[in-house]
Amino acid sequence: MDFGIALEGISIGSLQIRFYSLMILSGIGVGVVIAQREAKRYGENSEHVVNIAVIGAITAIVGARLYHVLDRDQWPYYSQNPGDIIRVWNGGIGIFGAMAGAILGLMLYVWWVNSTAKRKSSRASGRMGVLRWLDIGAPAFLVGQAVGRWGNFFNQELYGPPTDLPWGLPIDAVHRPLEYLSDTHFHPLFLYESLLSALGVVALLWLGRRFASRMMLGDMLLLYLIWYGAERFALEFLRFDNWKFGAVPTAQIVGVAFVLGAIAVMVYRHQTRKPDDTPKEQRAERGVTRGAERRRRRRTDSQDDG
User: Fold this and answer.
1) What is the enclosing helix (H) or strand (E) of 154?
2) Are 152 and 91 in contact (CB under 8 A)?
3) CA-to-CA distance for 97 and 68, rounded, in angstroms?
4) How far apart are CA 272 and CA 24, in angstroms?
5) How far apart are CA 272 and CA 20, in angstroms?
6) CA 65: distance to chain centroid?
7) How far is the C-alpha of 228 from the C-alpha of 93, rounded, in Å?
8) How far apart, in whole angstroms, are the C-alpha atoms of residue 85 and residue 69?
9) 246 to each of 108, 131, 230, 243, how far by Cα in Å?
10) Are 193 and 143 in contact (CB under 8 A)?
11) H helix or E strand, kind and range, residue 305
12) Contacts (Cβ under 8 Å, ≥6 apart) of 61
């Protein structure tokens, strides 16, 4: 039996294991671990996480692939080669499509659980909250992107212009654009996005705990949209193969919409927020940690003393 290892993956006879696919699966796995920890912090049943991950992975891959295939620069090829549309392992997915698909998958699962609970009983004990679970999933989505982006390394894609920096990524001639055939090393955009996304995971987890008593349901999702929207907007300046709307990269338009829209929604919701008259119930509803609740009480006591 033939056995071989290449940058793209491992071949065992006729079986091929692509590193691109393994990195996506690894991203999902790490995301599941993060989401399970968050679900426990929120007092939710962490067994739902795996179910959501299975459905969300399918809808995310479908959404990501559609976003790539419908790119006006890619559609002429796929319209002539429809069989290649399903070859996701060869690369070619759009993160914004993956985000939409993952959120849709989570919402479908929550709807199904709630519909089932409603048929079985009129009590709300088995019901799930969409915003609550989107908050649980927000850091998991981002860590999945951070890990999954390494699949681009093995496929030699998602890189920027040529660079002489020590961390420049060597790209084989077959994967270089015609205008850069004489160049060998390029900015590793996949690495920049992976590191920024990993930093965003740390930021979201810290903010979710540090300001838990002040946060409303849905805030973690909004913070995720703000972080990734800003991250993607900045990185698009280094990308030369991006999908453009006129002269502006589509990803920058979407990124700005995410940032401004999420900030506007968050500001509006907090300005119109009703006073927290039942801290214990609110803490249970928002998954507030005991430490955050103690800090909230100290702030309240100091204001009363003043």
Assistant:
1) helix 151-154
2) yes
3) 8
4) 40
5) 45
6) 15
7) 16
8) 7
9) 35, 35, 21, 9
10) no
11) helix 290-305
12) 24, 88, 93, 98, 101
Closest by CA to 114, choosing from 133, 141, 99, 101, is 133
CA distances from 50 to 33, 53, 125, 140 (A): 9, 5, 20, 12
Indicate the length of the chain as a whole number. Answer: 306
Place of tokens 């990185």: 235
- The answer to whether 41 and 28 have CB atoms below 8 angstroms apart is no
- Structure-token pair, residue 304: 């009363």
The residue behind tokens 């006073």 is 275
Q: Cα separations (Å) of 33 from 26, 36, 78, 154, 301?
A: 11, 5, 36, 24, 37
Distances (CA, A) of 255 to 232, 235, 249, 262: 6, 11, 10, 11
What's the burial of 140, exposed, middle or buried (CB within 10 Å: 0-12/13-18/19+)?
Answer: buried
Question: Tokens at residue 117, please?
Answer: 């609970």
pLDDT in tens, the chain (306 residues): 455 455 666 766 666 778 888 898 999 999 999 999 999 999 999 999 999 999 999 999 888 888 878 776 676 777 777 777 777 766 667 888 889 999 999 999 999 999 888 777 655 556 899 999 999 999 999 999 999 999 888 888 889 999 999 999 999 998 888 888 899 999 999 999 999 999 999 999 999 999 988 899 999 999 999 999 999 999 999 988 777 888 888 889 999 999 999 999 999 999 887 654 334 444 444 444 445 555 555 655 555 555
Say whether pTM exceeds 0.85. Answer: no
- Which tokens go with 87? 């070859």
